[in-house]
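Lab notebook, bench 4. The sequencing result for the construct came back, and we need a structural model before the next group meeting so we can plan mutations. Quick request posted to the team channel:

Model the 3D structure of this chain.
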Amino acid sequence: MGIYIKKEELEALRAEYPPGCRVELVKMDDPYREMPPGLRGVVTGIDDSGSIHVDWQNGSSLAVIFREDECRRVEDAEREAG
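Done. Here's the predicted structure in token form:
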């Protein structure tokens, strides 16, 4: 069973998380790799299932899985706080 994403949702994700934008991990449940909240990385792209591919600061390149994991753009959060 695959993850289903509507075309409009995929387009919105790609607009919100373009390659090169910085993100911060909110939550990821991966039993094989420690991926703590607050970990930062750079988006490398979004695949057709809506997974956000990221080069993380810990050397990992795990994707943020659509509807399973969560990340947020760092620039947006820092602008709101400033």
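The longest strand covers residues 40-46.
Will bring this to the meeting.
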